[in-house]
Target: Retrotransposon gag protein
Amino acid sequence: MSDETGESISQGKSTGLEERELPNIYVETVSLTEGEIPREAIPMTTTSPSPFQYWKEVARYVLYEEIYDDEAEVFNNAQCPTVPYHVLEKLLIILRDGKDFEGKYQHRMLKQE
Model:
């Protein structure tokens, strides 16, 4: 369906995306395949070698931003705190729907006083 100017009009509830520009968010994924260890895997020596060891290393990096020190052969301290996935989902909803996040919490603070 279109209006007088010929621009299409979407039916249903507006998401508010037309008025605002969403920020760019970078996400990197690696395919998890059972038994497959990518070429860029960190060489690890363990008492029980496992194809899952690489994915444990990836999880340490993704979850805690720990960077592997090749010289010391250990993971360094975390570079930033962990952000749970459900918090990212809530952020997406706020960005998508344009909800007044600060107003919501200001209202709660006023109720407590």
Summary: The beta strands are 68-69, 74-75. Helices lie at 53-64, 85-97, 101-112. Residues 26-110 form one domain. The longest strand covers residues 68-69.
